[in-house]
Amino acid sequence: MTTAVEWIKFIAGAIFLLAGLAIFMLEIIGVFRFKYVLNRMHAAAMGDTFGIGCSLIGLILMNGFNFTSLKLFLVIVFLWFSSPVSSHLIARLEVATDEEPDRHYKKASKLVSKNALLSSPSETEFHKE
Q1: What is the pLDDT of residues 51-87, one digit of tens each?
Q2: What are phi and psi for residue 106, nearest 5 degrees?
Q3: Is residue 13 part of a domain?
Q4: Structural domain tally of the chain?
Q5: Residues 6+ apart with CB under 8 A from 14
Q6: pTM for this one?
Q7: Is position 119 within any domain?
């Protein structure tokens, strides 16, 4: 009975590890295929967060539930909090120091004209009840 449980844990852990590796491969493809730095960074940040999570969950399942698993879980929690925050700060720095912003993104003032706002006042007014 215990050998069947261990095989199930091993297979589930291997599936999570392989999923993590596949996510890392997709991340690498995204980093090299995208042209703009924010698109590259988004692919890298999402891949790191999800890929590391899947890989470490696979290691937790293969290792069993003990003190080492708790440490791996704490690494997952730390990376899930730190990776998005650092990516967001780097993205804000890129937007603030971009030398050619018109080439990379359109500003809201260019997308919405004054005539469009004046022609539909019902969308911008508050409805009182």
Answers
A1: 999 999 999 999 888 999 999 999 999 988 888 888 8
A2: -100, 140
A3: yes
A4: 1
A5: 58, 62
A6: 0.69
A7: no
